Amino acid sequence: MYVNVIGAGLAGCEAAWQIAKRGIKVRLFEMKPNKKTPAHKSDNFCELICSNSLKAARVESAAGLLKEEMRRIGSLLMDAADGCSVPAGGALAVDREIFSQTVTQRLKAEPLIEIIEKEVTELPQDAVTVVATGPLTSEALSERIISMCGGSLHFFDAAAPIVTAESIDMNNAFTASRYDKGGDDAYINCPMNKEEYENFHAALVSAERAPRHDVDVMNPKVYEGCMPVEILAGRGLDTLRFGPMKPVGLRDPKTGHRPWAVVQLRTENSEKTMYNLVGFQTNLRFPEQKRVFGMIPALKNAEYVRYGVMHRNTFLNSPGLLGADYAMKSNPEMFFAGQMTGVEGYMESASSGMLAGINAARRVQGEEPLILPVDTMIGALANYISNSQSEDFQPMGANLGILPPLDVHIRDKKERAAAYAVRALNSLEKVMK
User: Are 135 and 173 contained in the same domain?
Assistant: First the structure.
């Protein structure tokens, strides 16, 4: 007896691990290294494409609460992430290479997991199956899923550029975290004065963008969390100054004043040899990225390890298709997990894989599915994708707004977030006993 897991991304790896932990054999299908999508470069599992940040670390935040819930359930990915973290202020960021290697090695070392390196083009019918092929599902399998589910939606996702540390002009940059949180070396900050910023903005909004495929042009939905920086800039002169380039909480030691605007660079690896441009997901042509981003004084001679790219993400109209256990309502032996279910974010995807894996194992063992309480973050996300009443279902990341209101109104934001966290973890502890 075994369970099929299709896809070795974050959701698929977490699902496979949870199934094996419960004593059930897993057949984990992954088309790499034989075939890769344009966005994938590594042969390892759990490749992080957009960013190496797993969002806020503190438990008194939506993202931090989600991660703490995953730790308490026994997440492979959180264990790996905690073991290869890099400085990122108040966020949990990882060395993406070590993270992927760690997850890959642990899965390959698990005797109950059989790795099958092949592209899956048909949905298996031989066993309980978890489909976790992600937002970049191959065309052949996408067609099968669309046929089975009666159609799909999709939107665009964009990745930020990465530059070498040695090419950053530190004479025009300084290290600091906002409000001195997380240590002075968490970010490299690239300040700009008013004239520099306005010239940069003008160049950015007029820069040449990379072409999209016809199928993409027909469906130009872009998720706000991965909005290309040039689209944000087109919304107004000050949009970036109140978004990814906000200078709030930073003071340039050279001037003693807050910059007019600032570009933050976050370390990509433990050795701090690579940095990504925070919030600078982009669809500009590569030469345009070098030209326009070179107008940032600290990046005038930057060397790019990876230019920003934009690709299509696919997700299901899940409320009509999936239950809160991530199983299909029409076929309880077919589970879906990851961003294709409508959860948005690395750990959100992993949490759906965790729950799908647990419930796939329970299905095989003849047990009732685990439906987590809606006052937990994992449960709230599962509830959102299965019960959203919106006519235009869109992806959702972890946020306190999807949790039920507290019994008592708390005005202070930090105290309110802490109360949500205490309630969620208490609720989780009761159901996981």
Answer: no
